[in-house]
Amino acid sequence: MVRRPGSGLPVSREVTAEPSEPAWRRVRRWLTSPPSAELILAQLNGQLAVLEGARAELEAGWVQGGWWLVTSDNGDRWLATGDAGGSPAHVDGVCLVGALARAGSSSDVGRAVDAVYDALWASRGQPTPAGLPPVPSPEVRQARVCTLIQWNDRAGRTRAEVLTLVDRAISATIMDLMAAPPPAQAEPAGVRTG
Question: Domain ranges in the chain?
Answer without folding.
Answer: 39-179
